[in-house]
Amino acid sequence: MKRDPNDPCYCGSGRKYKKCHKLIDEKLEAARREGFQIFPRQKLLHAKDIEGIKAAGVITRGILDMLAAEVKEGISTQRIDDLVAAYTAEHGAIAATLNYNGFPKSCCTSINEVVCHGIPSKDRIIKHGDIVNVDITTILNGYYADSSRMYCVGEVSAEARRLVDVALECLNIGLEQVKPFTRLNNIGDAVEAHANANGYSIVRDLCGHGIGKTFHEDPEVVHYAQPKKKGVLMMPGMVFTIEPMVNQGTYKCKFLKDGWTVETADKKLSAQWEHTLVVTDTGYEILT
Ligand code: MF3
Ligand code: CO
Ligand code: CO
């Protein structure tokens, strides 16, 4: 679309288009011609939405903090779910996973060889030495905030500890790649390089995702390397998760018949940490 440079900018700043978004639009048009995908402007979130996601994120973080004292040897994963459900309700929020595409619980609990989407159960008792991922997504006033952490139960093996630590480093290295007008795929390139350098693999079957007013939306955020792919450019106002699943052995996964639980194909350990973030004018801000 041709715009008059002297018209007011479409963004509502009150400045002339030529003094406001014209330069950015020209840069994006050049990037599009080079083969990059330009994320639709209407899908970018504004300050009010970011505040909404942040408020949901306070609850998500509160739950994960609360669980640090609760995830212990001898409790069931159902007990974790009960605690999550109670905290969520007390804070006037909704657990996004409950009834999400038929998922029956208020969080995911994924232990040892479980990669993700483990279903809390009264029959799964947490044992000394387990590494447990709890994944929480909270909805507050229609806004979603998704985050997960690992909990080490008692004294875990040195190997398990190293996997958990490297998985957190992978999340942080992914976050460091987030800069506006650069490749979204820089995340996967850096994350997989770090995992491989430590002798680990990165799950390919599951990805990070756009989030905000819905749970899972564009863009898809892969955590493995695609160095030749131009793909999507990050833009200020994009909100998405980074949540690399790091495996001790093969990256390959097995999907269980319960319709949800994902395990490593070789039954070796898997670890994951997740944050929701927004791309800013200069980098990123974590919202969880
Ligand atoms: N919170 C998960 C994610 O990081 C999604 C869980 S969906 C469920 O995207 F249905 F398995 F709970
Ligand atoms: Co999650
Ligand atoms: Co997620």
Shape: globular
Please give the share of residues in helix.
25-40%
Separation of termini? 37 Å
**Sheet of most strands:** 4 strands, antiparallel
- Which regions have little confidence, pLDDT < 50, spanning 5+ residues? none
- What structural class do the secondary elements suggest? alpha+beta
DSSP helical segment count: 5
3D architecture notes:
The protein has 288 residues and is an alpha+beta fold. It has helices at 22-34, 47-67, 77-90, 158-176, 186-197, and strands at residues 94-95, 108-111, 114-116, 131-140, 143-152, 201-202, 208-210, 217-221, 239-242, 245-247, 253-255, 262-264, 270-272, 275-279, 284-286. It has one domain (34-286): Creatinase/methionine aminopeptidase superfamily (Creatine Amidinohydrolase), CATH 3.90.230.10. It has five helices and 15 strands. The longest helix has 21 residues, at 47-67. It is globular, with a radius of gyration of 20 Å. The mean pLDDT is 97. Bound molecules: 2-amino-4-trifluoromethylsulfanyl-butyric acid and cobalt (II) ion (2 copies). The site of one cobalt (II) ion has 5 residues, from loops.
Q: Can you give me a brief rundown of this structure?
A:
With 288 residues, the chain is α+β, with helices and mostly antiparallel strands. The protein is 27% helix and 22% strand. The mean pLDDT is 97.
